[in-house]
């Protein structure tokens, strides 16, 4: 995606100090309290994982931890729901292919 741009509303908000984490090797900016999914969407990245059979991109659907469409590999942990996981400085997020083991 070449036309990524910041998509946050900034009307006088104090978001705190920005920090970075990586998604598939690219730097994404986040602010304290944001989920990984929110920061990725703000950066213009809509796909979280790819389906196992057809490798089709899946994006955020429910945004509240129910659908599991947002799972990614976060610091080596598969099936991490990025809509429910707070972004942290330096974390490494990777696209997941299919879904792994759920309990
Ligand atoms: S978007 Fe549905 S579980 Fe994350």
Kindly summarize this structure in a few lines.
With 103 residues, the chain is mostly beta strands. The protein has one domain: 2Fe-2S iron-sulphur cluster binding domain, sarcosine oxidase, alpha subunit, N-terminal domain (Ubiquitin-like (UB roll)).
Task: Give an overview in words.
The chain is 7% helix and 30% strand. The protein has 103 residues and is mainly beta. It has a 5-stranded mixed beta sheet with strand order 2-1-7-5-6, with helices on one face. Strand 1 and strand 2 form a beta hairpin. The protein is globular, with a radius of gyration of 13 Å.
Essential attributes:
7% helix, binds FE2/S2 (inorganic) cluster, Ubiquitin-like (UB roll), three-stranded mixed sheet, five-stranded mixed sheet, single chain, 103 residues, mainly beta
CATH topology category name: Ubiquitin-like (UB roll)
> Mean pLDDT, nearest integer?
89
Number of strands: 8
Globally, the shape reads globular
* Strand arrangement in the largest pleated sheet: 2-1-7-5-6
Which ligands appear in the coordinates? FE2/S2 (inorganic) cluster
CATH class: Alpha Beta
Number of helices: 1
How many domains comprise the coordinates?
1
What is the beta-strand fraction? 25-35%
Radius of gyration: 13 Å
**SSE order:** EEHEEEEEE
Low-confidence stretches: none
The share of residues in helices is under 10%
Structural class by secondary-structure content: mainly beta
Ends: how far apart?
Answer: 34 Å
The oligomeric state is single chain
CATH architecture: Roll
Q: What is the makeup of the main sheet?
A: 5 strands, mixed
């Amino acid at each position: 995606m070449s036309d990524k741009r910041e998509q946050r509303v900034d009307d006088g908000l104090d978001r705190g100090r920005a920090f970075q984490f990586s998604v598939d090797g690219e730097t994404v900016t986040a602010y304290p309290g944001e989920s990984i999914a929110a920061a990725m969407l703000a950066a213009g990245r809509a796909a979280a994982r790819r389906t196992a059979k057809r490798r089709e991109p899946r994006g955020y659907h429910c945004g509240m931890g129910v659908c599991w469409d947002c799972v990614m590999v976060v610091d080596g942990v598969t099936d991490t729901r990025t809509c429910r996981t707070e972004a942290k400085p330096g974390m490494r997020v990777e696209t997941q292919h299919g879904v792994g083991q759920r309990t």
